[in-house]
């Protein structure tokens, strides 16, 4: 067990604690945080534009059957949602979130009193811990309410992202109700966490960075609600207007 602790400590030091690493990573994280806002901002523009009529919903062509699905190539905002679902499924839920299930106590992990998990990789665990220790104390503290949100992510949101990927690519209208439920729950959870980050016991020392990094998980579900609520069939062509004499 002490050997595990030594290996983990050495790997952590070599990975994220080189000379000047904190300052470098701080700049990198701010750059990434600002860059991550690009997709939500474009999504807002396209979603609101479609909602108010600035971006027209494709009209069903004469050779398409009633209820035909709009091709993905003509649904640019849905491509952005697909990228959001993919990043959550492939990175956030089953790497970042799962690490907190696999390593319930950071102190025990670093002391070598528990065996390293098979997943995620050790270097990813070290990076997650460094981020928490440097920017986001609640990620290291892992209080019960926080872990509840992690389990919700893993058990419910992860499968939703997989279903949503399929549904948005294929244009399946049945995802609408699930999208409304998941988006509403996600907004509620993120707002609760940001209150803790701002005024709670585990306040972040880098408030602006943490707010920037969390912003996509407020903006994207809000846009998803605006995308699916107005129509019971959000992926089908709108019907052409009847010609008036």
Tally the helices: what do you get? 11
Distance from first to last alpha carbon:
84 Å
Task: Quickly give the structural class.
Answer: mainly alpha
Low-pLDDT stretches are 1-19
Report the principal-axis shape.
Answer: elongated
Estimate the helix proportion, in percent: 55-70%
Largest sheet: none
Give the secondary structure arrangement, pairings included:
Blueprint: H1 2-16, H2 21-36, H3 38-52, H4 76-102, H5 106-111, H6 122-134, H7 137-141, H8 144-170, H9 175-199, H10 207-214, H11 216-228
Helix pairs in contact: 1-6, 2-10, 3-4, 3-11, 4-8, 8-9, 9-10, 9-11
Brief overview, please?
It is built from eleven helices and no strands. It is mainly α and 245 residues long. α3 crosses α4 and α3 runs parallel beside α11.
Report on the structure:
The protein is mainly alpha-helical. The protein has eleven helices and no strands. It has helices at residues 2-16, 21-36, 38-52, 76-102, 106-111, 122-134, 137-141, 144-170, 175-199, 207-214, 216-228. The longest helix is centred in the middle third of the chain and has 27 residues, at 76-102. The protein is elongated. The termini are far apart. The relative contact order is 0.16.
Keywords:
245 residues, mainly alpha
